[in-house]
């Protein structure tokens, strides 16, 4: 597989983010030389829980892949409603000098996976490599501070602003700072080295396959000028991922057959 294809960018509102990776993500000192976003992760003696005030939210991802891309590229987005809330709170915090922290969990994982700081307001450009591309629009810049797998049992005594256990919170729920402070303290003191970083090389392969797929679909779109009768379609990504070479050959052959059949009429 070619690892150096151009980023898939359809229009000026697409966020152009070149692919980056390294061989060992668990060695943060070495990994951060290739991926600058990793430099601030899991630093000791931050003492963020000692702050007088901070704004905190719980965010829930449907999969590990989007967390992986958020950590590597320093970006995140959510539903339109959540984006509006986060943007408003970020702007409010900028005026008052109060940071916004995000506690991330993956749905049905039974744990929280990390903490990030919101470092920008909402931006219109959309990242094209989320797992569900059409669902997420725009982006925020984030700086991940802690990347640790912390089981839910460590948070079960805490409740959110709706008086529900934080481990059962909906995506985008706001936390008062007393609760957020305790969650931050748990992340600061938790010593287990297990994290999503251990799975990054495997998830990198899935990201490569997705980027390659979208690149080849763009190439097919560009070829429409040579085969104008061919109705372009988006093909099933899962089929492509499983059989990339056969899939490409099959679609190219069908592409040409359809063109010549139309041309002979």
From TrEMBL:
Record Pfam families: YTH (PF04146)
InterPro entries on file: YTH_domain, YTH_prot
CDD domains for the chain: YTH (cd21134)
Molecular function terms from GO: RNA binding
Residues annotated as domain YTH: 54-187
Annotated PANTHER family: CHROMOSOME UNDETERMINED SCAFFOLD_7, WHOLE GENOME SHOTGUN SEQUENCE, YTH YT521-B HOMOLOGY DOMAIN-CONTAINING
Protein name: YTH domain-containing protein
């Amino acid at each position: 597989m070619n690892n150096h294809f151009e980023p898939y960018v359809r229009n000026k509102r697409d966020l152009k983010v070149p692919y980056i990776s390294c061989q060992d993500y668990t060695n943060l000192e070495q990994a951060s030389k290739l991926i600058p976003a990793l430099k601030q992760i899991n630093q000791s003696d931050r003492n963020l829980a000692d702050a007088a005030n901070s704004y905190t939210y719980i965010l829930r991802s449907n999969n590990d892949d989007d967390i992986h891309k958020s950590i590597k590229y320093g970006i995140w987005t959510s539903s339109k409603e959540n984006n509006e809330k986060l943007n408003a709170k970020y702007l409010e915090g900028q005026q008052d000098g109060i940071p916004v922290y995000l506690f991330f969990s993956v749905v049905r994982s039974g744990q929280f996976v990390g903490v990030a700081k919101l470092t920008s307001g909402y931006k219109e450009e959309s990242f094209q490599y989320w797992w569900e591309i059409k669902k997420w629009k725009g982006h925020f810049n984030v700086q991940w501070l802690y990347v640790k797998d912390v089981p839910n049992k460590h948070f079960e005594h805490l409740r959110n602003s709706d008086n529900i256990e934080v481990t059962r919170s909906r995506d985008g729920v706001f936390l008062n700072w007393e609760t957020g402070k305790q969650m931050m303290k748990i992340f600061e003191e938790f010593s287990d080295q297990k994290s999503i970083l251990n799975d990054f090389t495997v998830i990198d392969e899935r990201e490569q396959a997705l980027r390659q797929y979208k690149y080849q679909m763009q190439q097919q779109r560009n070829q429409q000028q040579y085969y104008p009768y061919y109705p372009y379609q988006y093909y099933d990504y899962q089929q492509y991922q499983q059989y990339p070479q056969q899939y490409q050959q099959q679609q190219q052959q069908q592409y040409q057959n359809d063109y010549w059949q139309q041309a002979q009429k």
